[in-house]
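Two folds, back to back.
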Amino acid sequence: MKFENAFFELAAGTSEQLPPGDMPEVVFAGHSNVGKSSLINKILNRKSLARVSSQPGKTATINFYNLEGARLVDLPGYGFAKVSAAEKKRWAELIEGYFHQERDLRLVVMLIDSRHPASKDDMMMLDYLIDGQFPMKIVLTKIDKLKPTERKKRLAAIPDELDVDLEYMLPFSAVTGEGAQELRDIITECVSEEA
């Protein structure tokens, strides 16, 4: 699978605009400013296919990237306080609309900032994914920003905070590339499996 051949397919602002679920999909979910766009660009070996914004909450659409017969699906970041109630409602409808459609969903990559305890919104998303029995991998972003002792402490604390085994987690850095190849391998394996 040539990740660098991926291209932007479309952006959906309402559930009616979602493309048909006619190919395997890997979904990326996480809090605003957790580093989703940076992660997507890193695993695709691209600088700016997914737009990185200095303004959290900027991605207000579900963005689809086509990857040789599969799709990477970038959900809007959740939990950004400066968004209107109406906009938050639209996001919720859009995301729920996505998950409730008939789709060939192979994996949800849930991003959590390794430096901080999971937020209330993170825990709600995690519960939603666990309750829905979605296949999931938790990616701990911005791991390069932790000093070795802090890193050790956070990696020991996170499984208890999330009540999830460490084997479901992958430390990741868009800066150093740590975890990028492992995540590509996980995606390739999920997409290649027979549905």
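---
second:
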Amino acid sequence: MISRHTLLYAGLIACVTVTSPVLACDICSKDDAPHLHISSRADDHAPIGVMGDHMHKQGEWMLSYRFMHMDMDGNRNGTDNLTPAQIATTIPNRFSAIAGQPPTLRVVPTEMSMQMHMFGAMYAPTDWLTLMGMASYLDKEMDHITYQGMAGTTELGRFTTNSKGWGDTKVGGLFRLFEDDTHHLHFNAGISLPTGSIDETDRVLAPNGMTPTMRLPYGMQLGSGTFDALPGITYTGKQNNWTWGAQYSAQIPLESENDEGYRLGDKHSVSAWGGYGWADWISTSVRFTGTTQDSIHGIDPNIVAPVQTANPDNYGGETIDLGLGVNLLGTSGIIEGQRFAIEASMPLYRNLNGPQMEKDFQITAGWQYSF
């Protein structure tokens, strides 16, 4: 059976192979770089959900703001849907050997939402290098059902946990490899700095009726707790009113564990998109994204509860998403040169590692201004 990592790497190789004839050429000179300029068309950039998709000309700056909202509703194990009652009565509790812990998962998450505010800046000290940085502020909320006692399907009550604050900070650079009138290729290199909290707490409702304040599970924390490598490669093309592109990106922890004894699983994504410019000020796009992520390695000894999100094995998996986007560019007046964009995405395929919440919908909106 072909592994999921093999499929992703094959997709990356295919993207590079498409552009291999131009890779044999020398890196273009400044005069041969027609795409290194402040945007004059709405489709000069990829869909707003793609990070690090374009470069700038020497001396140019770009400021950006993105807002992302994600909704999760219901649960899934692998490719199968699970009801809360099924989880509460049939899924084993990893911590059942600890005194007072029930044999199955008596607390079940039902819905989760996340809002992320992303503030970015890019600067090009040379035509072949663009530096970039991004800070993010997150607000997470998760709803739960608590079932009474050690067995059965009697609901004891419901509760909601919340965490909010600054997440991890990302810095890096884009290195131009090739560019001509149609094709562009650059290497993405960056690092994620562990500025987000990994010790968030909130009050929960336990199956015995108590309401202790506990450390929240991994998915409700604000950062990874590790320095993470952010490698990638991006190809874009443009012909008349059509644009297209592909990007491989990854997030790979550089440490064996964080201060709490774990690290997030390696994450790899391959994205491909196509767009059409209806006029200089408007374009639309369609994008497919395949992602694979390993489960969490290690365990935080302070995260112990009869809930699926407390088990580090119940993270990661394989997904394929479809995104539809619109780019708008101000062409006159006070908004001249300012780009406004939105992209909505939904899952086409989900194969998750163990019982997990499943993502149903995500929308990303943003503003970008180059000068």
